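Q: Structure tokens for this one, please.
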Amino acid sequence: MSKVFSLSEAGSIAIHSMVLIATADSKLNVVKIAERTGSSKHHVAKVLQRLVKDDFLVSNRGPHGGFELKRPAEDIDLLSVYESIEGKIEIAECPLNNEICAFDKCVMGNIIGEMTSGFQSYMKNQKLSMYINS
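A: Here is the predicted structure, written as tokens:
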């Protein structure tokens, strides 16, 4: 069965890891996050180091080390996390990025642009704090 939309594994790891870290009572390490997300610890480590580099997380080594948020959860939107991993979202008019269309009217209409704008808007409005049960 095909999917019209899917997140990359790295994007999914980033978003889910951020929620796990935000909701944790203490620092979480790569092994715990990999277990909870069902991902390779090497892939989780790579994604989390990118989030550290982009100032979303603080990383501490050692037996009591792990990751924690660098800034308040209410100041972090999911779009920023996603774009940290995947790059800035570009809203294209043509799903094939063609400059010139073979048809007078695009057979896809503007559905790709609308879906991308909708995803971008949704992710921008989703704050990390919304996933923390108080």
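A few notes: The helical segments are 9-23, 30-37, 41-53, 78-86, 111-125. The beta strands are 57-60, 66-69.
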